[in-house]
Design brief:
By secondary structure, the protein is of the alpha/beta class. It is about 30% helix and about 15% strand. The strands form five sheets. The protein has a three-stranded antiparallel sheet. The longest helix has 13 residues. The relative contact order is 0.13.
């Protein structure tokens, strides 16, 4: 179990414990202690040092406002956006590659991508993704100007340390994966197998996970919620298991799971009332 709380400014008090309790109510368990990214600064700094020794990082003083001046009306860079990579970032033009334009300003650390060509990421459900990170994103942030480590670095370091072999996550993170692949190459880390699932959204297209309608699961509602979730994921629970304890539903789901039922599905509209 890993809590990706690397951005402490966005953490809601009590949210992490609420997530763990919700998973328990849904019958999901984990092995070993909970790893919290907010406690992992030493590991991330060590990875930064390894990249710096290879000449693959540099300090950057660019703020969001400065970069928007270069491309007015374009979303800002990933060091000031959602750590999972939304909305789409402005391609960084390499403004500080030869040294920070304003050395006295707060500095981010960026990863040099110009030495890498295109990278292809295989996926167990989606089509392979081939991307030139340099052309699409440019030199991306590893440590932000506010001192917090970026999601891309943290998740790569933690996947390797925790021995993660299978990554199953939302499709909104698919185009982040080439950046993570470049870091795995540079750090000599193993590559997990990826499977990106369609997002569950409201009728208007907003992600249910970030909606006011994404309510906590109390113990009594857990069986019904799990039945609904499996149905949305194209794995309808047999009628005889409707209302059954979550443990029985999960046992059935493990045996029935076939991700190819979701092939070609980009979003799933929630029918939650």
């Amino acid at each position: 179990m890993r809590l990706e709380d690397v951005d402490r400014n966005r953490e809601v008090p009590g949210a992490a414990d609420a997530i763990l309790r919700t998973l328990e109510r849904l019958g999901l368990q984990w092995d070993g202690p909970v790893l919290r990214q907010s406690m992992r600064a030493d590991a991330y700094e060590a990875a930064l040092s390894r990249l710096a020794d290879q000449g693959l990082t540099y300090a950057c003083s660019c703020s969001r406002a400065e970069l928007e001046t270069l491309a007015p009306g374009t979303p800002g860079p990933d060091d000031l956006l959602d750590p999972a990579g939304e909305p789409v970032e402005l391609r960084y033009p390499g403004r500080c590659r030869r040294g920070p334009v304003r050395p006295d300003a707060p500095l981010a650390v960026r990863f040099r991508v110009e030495a890498f060509g295109t990278v292809t990421v295989a996926d167990r459900l989606q089509n392979p993704l081939t991307q030139s990170v340099d052309a699409i994103v440019g030199d991306f942030v590893l440590k932000r100007r506010d001192g917090f480590y970026a999601y891309q670095l943290a998740v790569v370091v933690d996947d390797a340390e925790q021995g993660i072999t299978e990554v199953v996550r939302g499709l909104d993170l698919y185009d982040n994966t080439p950046r993570q692949r470049l870091l795995q190459i540079a750090l000599g880390l193993p590559v997990p197998r990826y499977l990106h699932l369609p997002l569950i959204v409201e009728s208007g297209g907003a992600k249910l996970s970030k909606s006011r309608r994404a309510l906590p699961a109390d113990a009594g509602a857990a069986p019904r919620i799990l039945t609904e979730l499996l149905g949305w994921l194209r794995h309808p629970v047999p009628a005889m298991l409707h209302g059954a304890p979550v443990e029985a539903q999960l046992e059935w789901a493990v045996g029935a799971w076939n991700p190819q039922r979701l092939h070609g599905v980009m979003t799933i509209i929630s029918t939650q009332s």
